[in-house]
Amino acid sequence: xxxxxxxxxxxxxxxxxSRFVVEENYKHHSTxxxxxxxxxxxxxxxxxxxxxxxxxxxxxxxARYDHKIIGSIRVFKWDxxxxxxxxxxxxxxxxxxxxxxxxxxxxxxxRFAIDKSEYGYMVAEVDTKLxxxxxxxxxxxxxxxxxxxxxxxETIPIYASQEGITPFYQHYHSLYNCA
Length: 179
What we know:
By secondary structure, the chain is an alpha+beta fold. The protein is 39% helix and 30% strand. Helix 1 crosses helix 2 (36-53).
């Protein structure tokens, strides 16, 4: 019987993670599928980047359904030595633009991907101020219940379908084509 699993992955999963992230990005953001050569090249680029960034402070969370990855996110504490994607892609060095204090810690979040499914839903508990921003950006959400105060913030349960999220992707299409 198929089942859901959420686990912390290790370095041995980097190639599978890279393939999932690249394939899902193309499914979500491209109207023309890449050539097989381009797809494999992009997968290897992501894989090599992940290998270079992986350390004992890396946390890769993978959600699976019936042993197939359906979602992922990676977080790691930056050692201030390895080149971050924000440095390589945008030329932004956090030590120069944010803080170079010895005690400052930097955590990088990346490889956030979700399997594209027309029957998938996003569910969340969202601060009401953030919810206004989410809705203003074109993500159509539906309230699931009354708000309550959680961690000193008015929070409301919501969901959005693929149909509710699609206008956001269509409107900001040019932004994710740059990266």
